[in-house]
Amino acid sequence: MTTEERVKLIISDVRNRGGGMLSNMLEPEFVDCDEKNRRTRIRYKRFKWEENGRGEVHGGVISAMLDTAMGVTAMAFLDHDVSTADMSISFIRPFDGRSFIIESEVIHLGRRIVRLTGRAVDEETGKMLASGTTNFMPVSYEQHKGILGV
Fold it and tell me: Computed from CA positions of residues 9, 11, 15, 18, in that sequence, does the dihedral angle turn out positive or negative?
């Protein structure tokens, strides 16, 4: 299976989960994948429920968009489940457009840590709205079960 096929499969899995999970509610959409440079682009459309009191997308939702997009990218290139170890986000401009593209790039693909950078741009204007970095830890399904108490 190619990395692009894995990205599409992971996004499909995210979108088809039930139970009102935030990553599902964000409805990520595949845009493209650059396997050579270990990059992906994922689209998010804006929904009314995401807005803060000023009518902009809430910072927590923006964080979830970046976390989900970079997580999908990490899983696709690692071909393994991951769990967020840490994340840093810089908010540059308000998210007041209709749709956003999260561009993620794998910086380091190790056995114990996967590091990515991400940037969010307004799809219509191309202006950068936020940037972030994150580290993920590879985890197995069995480890997830232990963490979640399932």
Answer: positive
Residue 38 has pLDDT above 60, yes or no: yes
DSSP 48-76: GGGB-TTSSBPHHHHHHHHHHHHHHHHHH
CB 28 within 8 A of CB 72: yes
Strand partners, 90: 131
Q: Compute the distance between CA of residue 6 and CA of residue 129 in angstroms, rounded to an integer.
A: 27
User: pTM for the complete prediction?
Assistant: 0.90
Inter-residue contact 104 to 70 (CB < 8 Å): yes
Strand ranges of the sheet holding 99-109, from the earlier edge strand across to the other edge: 29-34, 39-45, 99-109, 114-122, 128-138, 82-91
Domain ranges of the chain: 3-148
Quote the CATH superfamily of domain 3-148.
Hotdog Thioesterase (3.10.129.10)
pLDDT of residue 16: 80
